[in-house]
Amino acid sequence: MCRNIKTLFNFDPPATEEEIRAASLQFVRKLSGFNKPSKANEDVLARAVEDTARVARELLDALVTNATPRDREPRPRREPRSASAEGRLEATIASHASGVDAEAGRTGESGPALGTASRIQPQLTA
User: Fold this and answer.
1) What are phi and psi of 71, to 5 degrees?
2) Which of 46, 55, 73, 91 is the most exposed place for a label (fewest CB within 10 A)?
């Protein structure tokens, strides 16, 4: 539930009353454990949402910063990995599973597999 609460401070344009109320509703839901309250608790929780929204607005109005306001536009998502990068990743995973060092073309018997440098044990000769 609380993962939906977004940062509201230092944005241009500033947070709206609707955004503050939505964050307050999520906060009260998280605290109370109720997503949809019973009739007996409806008034108490509605009052808690309004009080929380009022205090949140006071907090946002009182905070100060020297940082420039952040843009409201969401950041573009990162592009997915290329097919060649995915292939290299899959080869590395497969080599770990088979005990073959993908870069050197060795098995774990003639040298340590990737990621085992901290667990090297002396080899016994017969």
Assistant:
1) -75, 145
2) 73
Please, what sign has the CA dihedral across residues 53, 59, 62, 63? negative
Does the predicted model carry a pTM greater than 0.70?
Answer: no
In tens, the pLDDT along 47-63 reads 999 999 999 999 999 99
Task: Count Cβ atoms within 10 A of the Cβ of residue 113 and give its class: 0-12 exposed, 13-18 middle, 19 or more buried.
Answer: buried
In the chain, domain spans? 2-71, 83-119
Tens digits of per-residue pLDDT, 60-106?
999 999 999 888 776 677 766 666 666 666 777 777 666 655 555 55
Residue 74 — φ and ψ, nearest 5°? -65, 150
Name the DSSP class of 71: E
